[in-house]
From TrEMBL:
Protein name (database record): Hsp20/alpha crystallin family protein
Domain SHSP, first and last residues per copy: 26-138
Organism: Kribbella koreensis
Cleaved signal peptide residues: none
Pfam families referenced in this protein's UniProt entry, alphabetically: HSP20 (PF00011)
Family, per entry: Belongs to the small heat shock protein (HSP20) family.
Length: 147
C-alpha cells in the first residue's frame, strides 16, 4: 500500500479558501509537484510532473519506508538587457513524501525521467504477493488453495 502525505496541503487549501485564488504570495499558485499514483500488476507507479527541472536537480531518498522526492526549479538565466514581464512559475526547492507500506519493496524502486515527468515504479514485496498453500487431508491428498 502506498500512502501519500503532505502535512501542509490542508493548510494551503484553507488559506486559498480564506484569501481566494488571488491570495498573497505562494498561496495563490497550485501544488508545484502534482502526482498520480496507481497499481499496475505487481507494482505501484507514481508519476510526478516536474516541467522545467533538469534530472540533475532531482533527488530521491528512501529512509525507513519514507520516500522523499526533492526537486529544484532554478530561475531562468536571462541576459543583461532582458526585462522580465511575467514570472508566474514557482521557483525553489519542492518536496513530496510518500510513506511506503511494508508490502512494498523499497530496495527495488526504479526511476525514469522523460518530458518533464518523473516516473517511479515500486514493486510489491515477494512476501506480500498472493501465493498457493497446499492443504493435506486425512487421505494424504494435497489440494492447492489461494492464500
Amino acid at each position: 500500500m502506498l500512502i501519500r502525505t503532505d502535512p501542509f496541503r490542508e493548510f494551503d487549501r484553507l488559506a486559498q479558501q480564506f484569501f481566494g485564488s488571488q491570495g498573497p504570495g505562494t498561496w495563490s499558485h497550485p501544488t508545484a509537484m502534482p502526482m498520480d499514483a496507481y497499481r499496475e500488476g505487481d507494482q505501484y507507479v507514481v508519476a510526478f510532473d516536474l516541467p522545467g527541472i533538469s534530472p540533475e536537480a532531482i533527488d530521491l531518498d528512501v529512509e525507513r519506508n519514507v520516500l522523499t522526492v526533492k526537486a529544484e526549479r532554478r530561475p531562468l538565466e536571462l541576459g543583461e538587457d532582458v526585462e522580465m514581464q511575467v514570472a508566474e512559475r514557482p521557483l525553489g526547492v519542492f518536496s513530496r513524501q510518500l510513506f511506503l507500506g511494508d508490502t512494498l519493496d523499497a530496495d527495488r524502486i526504479e526511476a525514469g525521467y522523460e518530458a518533464g515527468v518523473l516516473t517511479l515504479k515500486i514493486p510489491i514485496a515477494e512476501q506480500a504477493k498472493a501465493r498457493k498453500i497446499a492443504i493435506a487431508n486425512n487421505d494424504g491428498d494435497r489440494k492447492q488453495i489461494d492464500a
